[in-house]
Amino acid sequence: MLKIERIHFKKALVLGAFLISPMHANAESTSVDKLAAKHASANYKEFVELLSLPNDAVVPADIQKNTAWLEQAFQKRGFQTRQLPNDGKPMLYAELPGADPAKKTILFYAHLDGQSVTPQQWKQKSPWEAALKRKTDKGEWETIPLETLYGEQVDPEWRLFARSSSDDKGPIMMLLTAFDALKETGRAPGINVKVILDSEEEKGSPSLGEVIRQNADLLKNDALLVLDGPMHQTNKPTLVFGNRGVAQATLTVFGAKQGLHSGHFGNYAANPAMRLAQLLASMKDENGRVTIPGYYDSVKIDAAAEKIMSAVPDDEAALRKRLGIAQAEKVGKNYQEALQYPSLNVRGMAAADVGAKARTIIPESAVAELDLRTVPETPPEQLIGMLKKHIEAQGYHLVQGTPTDEDRAKYDKLASLASEEVSASSSAARTDMQSPVGEWLYRSYKATYGEEPVRIRMMGGTVPTGAAVEALKVPFVIVPLVNADNNQHSYDENLRVGNFVSGVKGLIGLLQQPF
After folding, report:
1. 513, 446 in Cβ contact below 8 A?
2. pLDDT in tens, 305-350
C-alpha cells in the first residue's frame, strides 16, 4: 500500500485573494454565508427528490436509477459525465470542462449507494420519504410539514430524516449546490474539478480499485478529497487525514458431532461455547488491550503525533456519558490515540438457542464473528496471520470447513478461521497533515469559517481510501460535512439542516481557493 506520509510535494505558494487581510476575510465569510444559505434553500426540493430513490447496492436497478438521476444533476451544472461500467451497478464520473493546466486537479469522492433498511424501525412512513423534524422541549423528535423547509424561516437545528441523508447523498447535494453558488459569483474555480461517485461503498467497494485502474487516465489528479464520514462531535469544521481499514473473520469452535444432552454428557464432552469464550478471553486483557504477540508493535506514536491528537477538542466525559460507560479501555492515553492502534472486536456470537427456544444441550459448535480494524502500519494480512498463530498457540487445530472423522479422532481442540478476501475497505491509509493538500485545506477552512478547523490524524471508521490511494497514487484527505449524531447505517438516519448550509459554505471556499 502506498505510504502517503512518506511522499513529499512542493509547497503550494498561491493564496486566495480573499486572504489578503483579516477584514477582507471577514467580509468574504459573511458573503459566503448568504450565498450558501440562498442556494441551499433553492435546492432542498431537489435533495428530497434524490432521497426518494432507494439505493441499496444489492439491487442493481436501484443503483442505475440513482446514477442516472445524479448524471443529469451534474450535467445541469455544466459537467461532462460518464457512467463507469461495474457489473450492472455503474459508478458515475463527472468533470468540469475547461481544465487549466496551470491549476491542480482535485478528485472529489463520494458514494451514491446506501445501507439497507428495515422500514418498521423507522419512526416515519418510509425511509425513502424524507421527514422534516424538530426537537420538542422534552427532547423528542416531532414531524413538521416538509413544505416548511422550503420557506424563508428555516431553523438550522431541524433535521431531515431519510436513508442516505447524511451517508452520503447529503454531501453530494452540498457539492452540487456549491457549484450553483459559484456560478452566481461568476468566478472560475481555483482548481480543476473531477468527481467519482462509488456505487458499492456500503458493500466494501469491492470493485473500486479495478474501476479506477480501468479509467486511470480519466481519473488522473493531484489529490483526492473524500466527502464522507461525520464531523467532530463539537460540529466544528473538521478535516480527517486518515482512516482505519477493516478485516473480517469467522471463528468456529467445534464440539461433538451433534448437540448432546447436558445431563448425560455434561462433565464429559467439552462445550464449544465455553471453549470459544476462553479462546476469545485469551485475546484481550481486562483493560481491553489485545494480548496477541506483536499486535501493536508496528505502531509508533511520536511527540508530534501526540501533540496533534491532544489538540482535538474531545470531551471524553461527555462521550462516556453518551455511550453509557463508566470508563474507557486502556489501549491509548485518550480517544484519539486509541484510534491509532489496530483493534480486535467480537461483532457477534452464536451457540445453540436462547430465550424460549433454549434447550438443555451441549451445542455442537460455537461461532464468533470478528472484525479487526487495521491501521497503516498493520495490513490486514498481517493481523489475520497473527490471529491464526495465536489460536494455534492455544492448542487448536484449524480445519477448512467442517472437521472430518479423522480430525475428530486425532485432535482434541478443533476450530476453523475463515477470513474474507482483502477488499477496498481492508487497508488503512493516512496523509501527512503538513502535505500541500493538507495546508491548502487548512488555509481554505480557516479563511471560510473564520476559525481553526479540527484536524484529526486518523478516524476510527472505514472508507475505501486504501484501494483508491493504491490505484491513484495520490494523497487524500477526508472532508466530513455532516453532524456526528446522524445515525448513519442505522434507522432514523438524519442530516441537520444547519450542516447542509455549513457544508455548502465550506465547499464554496474550497472551490475558490487556489491550490
Report:
1. no
2. 999 999 999 999 999 998 999 999 999 999 999 999 999 999 999 9
Query: How many Å apart are CA 511 and CA 99, to the nearest integer?
Result: 13
CA distance 117 to 490: 8
> Using one digit for the tens of pLDDT, what is the confidence trace for 479-490?
999 999 999 999
Q: What angle do CA 382, 386, 390 make, to 5 degrees?
A: 170
Strands 223-226 and 105-111: parallel
| The pLDDT of residue 12 is above 50 | no
Q: With residue 506 as reference, give the H or E element that holds it.
A: helix 497-512
> What is the rounded CA–CA span in Å between residue 159 and residue 149?
10
Which DSSP helix (H) or strand (E) runs through 89? none
8 Å CB contact between 391 and 411: no
Q: Is the pLDDT of residue 26 over 70?
A: no
Q: What's the rounded Cα separation, in Å, for the pair 439 and 231?
A: 19
d(Cα 404, Cα 400) in Å, to the nearest integer? 10
Q: For residue 44, what is its C-alpha cell? A: 432542498
List, in sequence order, every residue forming a beta bridge with 374; answer none if it has no partner.
245
Give Cβ neighbours of residue 326 (< 8 Å, ≥ 6 apart). 320
Mean pLDDT of the chain: 92
Grid cell in block for residue 492: 432514523
Residue 353 has pLDDT above 50, yes or no: yes
Predicted confidence band at 421 (pLDDT cuts at 50, 70, 90)? confident
Spatial CA neighbour of 247 closest among 398, 389, 427: 427
